[in-house]
Write a structure and sequence with these properties.
The structure is a single chain. This protein is of the alpha/beta class and 211 residues long. It has a single domain, classed as Rossmann fold (3-Layer(aba) Sandwich). The chain is built from five helices and ten strands.
Length: 211
């Protein structure tokens, strides 16, 4: 849930990268953190587990003029993908404003992708959130590897809902698709906030440029 700091004229939004273990969530955050102007980002904090990491940092976009008079800050989180860390994933999802679901494009990872997405839907429902009302994008990562599923098949297994969402191809290790996904989800989050909290005569198109 967005946090408005009226004294500082700031609004904070929380974006969570969700997906199966080793799908590329951590790589996404590392690429973003390395690329953003040092003056516009906080320190990356890592909480290590035996097989995955939960990462966090916040940044202020270089251009964000959607909400007049306020600075916008986005907090980016990853969740550990392994099934054993379910409680950690539920904790990280609390107060989420938008999501990037990072799927592994390899054929032999499809079952894990589906299981992770179903886990996401269930965890959101448990805290009173509906995935279909949540701003999110789908990232089909690791497109540089052999034996990958075509994007239309991944859409079939992960994006076959009443309202289809944006899905983007990515190779996070080379930064391909990383900022396209982040820009998209940030815009969706801003648009939702504006629709729900900004008076009609003040609404404008959200403009966001991260790099």
């Amino acid at each position: 849930m967005s946090f408005v700091h009226f004294a500082k004229r700031e609004i904070q939004f929380k974006i969570v990268y969700y997906g199966p273990g080793l799908s590329g969530k951590t790589t996404n955050l590392e690429v973003v953190h390395e690329s953003i102007n040092p003056d516009a980002k906080g320190e990356m904090i890592s909480v290590a587990t035996s097989g995955d990491r939960t990462l966090f940092f916040d940044f202020m976009p270089l251009v964000a003029e959607a909400i007049e008079g306020y600075k916008t800050h986005f907090q980016l989180y990853t969740v550990p993908g392994q099934i054993m860390y379910g409680e950690t994933r539920r904790l990280v999802l609390r107060g989420v404003d938008g999501l990037v679901f990072v799927a592994d494009s390899q054929w032999d990872k499809m079952a894990e992708n589906v299981e992770s997405f179903e886990d996401l839907v269930a965890n959101l429902a448990a805290q009173g959130d509906d995935i279909d009302a949540m701003p999110y994008v789908l990232q089909y990562n690791k497109r540089d590897l052999p034996n990958i599923a075509p994007s239309h098949y991944m859409d079939f297994v992960l994006n076959d809902r009443e309202e289809r969402r944006a899905s983007m191809l990515a190779t996070a290790s080379t930064s391909q698709g990383v900022f396209e996904c982040l820009n998209m989800v940030c815009r969706l989050v801003l648009h939702k906030f504006i629709e729900e909290h900004v008076a009609d005569d003040q609404k404008s198109e959200a403009e966001l440029v991260l790099v």
